[in-house]
Automatic annotation (TrEMBL):
This protein's name: Cellobiose transport system permease protein
Matches recorded under Pfam families: BPD_transp_1
Bilayer topology: Multi-pass membrane protein
Organism field: Sediminibacillus albus
GO biological process: transmembrane transport
PANTHER family (UniProt xref): ABC TRANSPORTER PERMEASE PROTEIN MG189-RELATED, ABC TRANSPORTER PERMEASE PROTEIN MG189-RELATED-RELATED
Compartment annotation: Cell membrane
Main location class: membrane
Gene Ontology cellular-component terms listed: plasma membrane
Entry keyword Cell membrane: yes
Transmembrane feature ranges: 12-35, 76-100, 112-136, 148-167, 188-211, 248-267
Keyword Membrane part of the UniProt annotation: yes
Alphabetical keyword list: Cell membrane, Membrane, Transmembrane, Transmembrane helix, Transport
Length: 282
């Protein structure tokens, strides 16, 4: 009886340690967003003071008005929303199709192609900048959102992720039964595979949407006109070489981060489900 009480105390103590560590990690993760919000609500003098302000101020509206007076904030947000949404939808469809093919079909050179796909993930994207820009120039897509959307619709990691998830969660017996019933390959993909891989869709959607929303280098290369700027390029124009208004800059950064938080909260449950799928699978 005494050993059971001791074991219960040990379990309780270990739980306290685990929850304590998780709470500290959560605070450390949330603090940058809180700090950014505090900076966005304070005047530049309060930000540069020693010690700096740690509580929200009263300058949130003023700082955001300064953002609107310097850049087309909502236009850039709309451009980023278009780019990120269309690219994400394209990646979900095309990468799931490719992953389905690699996972469930046998064809000549399949393993070689898959290894080549994995190798491309090791190549820094900066190495492809010049040839990609040459192609975009020949297609006359410079200063057009198509130059960002279409090249981003194929993602090596997306194909790899979908291939692994489909291999683990879509039984071959289910496909064989569907083929006996006369289903085509695309119908098997659409009616059987897609409902099963919804959590994988959510995970890939979060990753791709955040990547495209935060992408800076490629939009900087191909977008020239202010009306076509994405939000990251527009925020760059808030930085002045002589006078830096940190409250204004962080106000724009804060409001540009809000859509990412909303997307994550919407797909959070499916995201966690996809990561824990293998752990709970019998």
């Amino acid at each position: 009886m005494g050993s059971r009480k001791t074991e219960a105390k040990k379990i309780t103590f270990s739980n306290i340690i685990v929850y304590g560590v998780l709470m500290i990690a959560a605070i450390l993760s949330i603090f940058p967003f809180y700090w950014m919000f505090v900076m966005a609500t304070n005047h530049n003098s309060a930000i540069n003071s020693v010690p700096p302000a740690f509580i929200p101020g009263k300058e949130l509206v003023t700082n955001f008005q300064n953002v609107l007076s310097n850049i087309d904030f909502f236009g850039a947000m709309w451009n980023s929303l278009i780019v990120s949404t269309l690219t994400t939808l394209g990646v979900l469809f095309l990468c799931s199709l490719a992953g389905f093919s690699f996972a469930k079909f046998q064809f000549k050179g399949k393993n070689v192609l898959f290894v080549f796909l994995l190798v491309t993930m090791m190549v820094p994207p900066q190495l492809g900048l010049i040839p990609q820009y040459y192609i975009i120039t020949k297609l006359d897509w410079v200063n057009d959102l198509k130059a960002i959307i279409i090249p981003g619709m194929i993602d090596a990691f997306g194909i790899f992720w979908m291939r692994q998830y489909i291999s683990s969660n879509v039984p071959d017996e289910l496909m064989d039964a569907a083929k006996i019933d006369g289903c085509s390959n695309f119908r098997i993909y659409w009616n059987i595979t897609v409902p099963v891989i919804i959590p994988a869709f959510a995970t890939l959607a979060i990753i791709k949407f955040m990547y495209m929303w935060n992408d800076f280098l490629w939009p900087l290369v191909v977008l020239r006109d202010e009306s076509s700027y994405t939000i990251q390029i527009a925020l760059r124009n808030l930085i002045d070489n002589y006078v830096r208004d940190n409250g204004m800059i962080l106000s724009g950064t804060f409001w540009a981060t809000v859509p990412l938080i909303i997307i994550f909260l919407l797909f959070n449950r499916l995201f966690i489900q996809s990561l824990t799928q293998g752990a709970v699978k019998s």
